[in-house]
Amino acid sequence: MTKIEGVCREVIEKSESVAIATTGPDGPHLAACWTRNVLALGLKDDEILIPAWRYEQTGENLRRDPRIELLFVARDVPHSDGKGQGCTVAGTGELQTTGPIAERVKMVFPWSRGVLVVKVRSVKTHLP
Are the C-beta atoms of 96 and 35 separated by less than 8 Å? Predict the structure, then answer.
């Protein structure tokens, strides 16, 4: 099981936003969220919860193809030649608008219609 740890955990905790990439019938689709909203839900080792405001296209794409990638970047995380590091989290995603996880997220973020649940398959940094 892949875990979010070390440098990738630090990048996530220090990033401002997360880019969310899925694939649809017309190609790639991007969405985003503030990382502070992700962290407010608790960062697990193998799962990331993202409050979903709309994400209609993201949800449609994930029903066809559950693969998802998240990109986090943080300017203050060091790498071998200086500062600034990125981390990609790849896995499978599902947009849930009902159920216990979705209801918990709606309590924290009343504006959300549910939660994007990402099961982590791999994590990698971008710079050595």
Answer: no
**HSE toward the beta carbon, residue 10, CA cutoff 13 A:** 11
Is residue 110 domain-resident? yes
Q: How many residues does the chain have?
A: 128
Total structural domains within the chain:
1
Would you put residue 109 in left (φ > 0), alpha (ψ -120 to 50) or beta?
A: beta
* Residues 6+ away with beta carbon under 8 Å from 41: 49, 50, 51, 105, 108, 115
- Read off the pLDDT of residues 6-46 as tens digits, 9 standing for 90 and up: 999 999 999 999 999 999 999 999 999 999 999 999 999 99
CATH number of the domain encompassing residue 107: 2.30.110.10
Residue 15 to residue 8: CA distance in whole angstroms:
10
- The structure's pTM equals 0.95
Question: Token pair for residue 49?
Answer: 């919860």
For the stretch 104-113, pLDDT in tens is 999 999 999 9
Using the predicted structure, report yes or no on whether residue 68 has a pLDDT greater than 80. Answer: yes
* Residue 1 covered by a domain: no
Which range of residues forms the domain containing residue 72?
Answer: 6-125
